[in-house]
Amino acid sequence: MPDEPRRRFAWRPLIRSWHRDLGYLAVGLTFVYALSGLAVNHIADWDPNFANYRTTHRLPAPLPASDQDAARTVLDQLRIRQPVKEVYRAAPDQLDILLENRTLHVNPQTGSVVDEGQRPRFLLRVSNWLHLNRGKKAWTLIADLYAVGLLLLAVSGMFMLPGKNGMRGRGAILVLIGIAVPVLYVTLSGGPR
């Protein structure tokens, strides 16, 4: 009986399934890093961690003459339970009450209260915290594994398709363009000094 030719190992289907599964694992972290990256790239235009607000309230006037009594009255009437950091006169007709992430500007004569502060943007603030590695050692390990996973996705992606659509044709051109973009940017912008 003649020897049958050895079948070649079909490595492309293995790479495709491995690439697919690793891609699914990377989706969540990619959302976190992409969302945070977009937000932090535009930090000069807005605060990605906090949303600013300003509301005006009208309380019965006049308020008590003592700054501390006036502050207590304002907090009680507005049902604010946060601890007070400081109470001081910013001007004869303005009493400021400082709280965590907010300030109440009170006119004791008119009863006008301007509440200015910041509220955390839940999803963006958490994403930025992770992206900027505020979680330190434990998150560094996760971020490093994610970076290795992205490298593996990039390499396996280059070998998924054979022939003219793969690295012998269009794929090679696209990889070179992808490499050229950061190289050209660094070259044309002067790069780090």
The SSE string, one letter per element, is HEHEEEEHHH
Mean pLDDT equals 90
Ranges where pLDDT stays below 50 over 5 or more residues in a row are none
The major β-sheet equals:
5 strands, antiparallel
- State which percent range the strand residues make up: 15-25%
| Radius of gyration using CA atoms only | 29 Å
Task: Give a count of the beta strands, DSSP E runs of length 2 or more.
Answer: 5
Overall shape: it is: elongated
Determine the N-to-C terminus distance.
71 Å
Biggest β-sheet: strands ordered side by side in the sheet:
1-5-4-3-2
What is the percent of helical residues? 40-55%
Structural class: alpha+beta
Helical stretch tally: 5
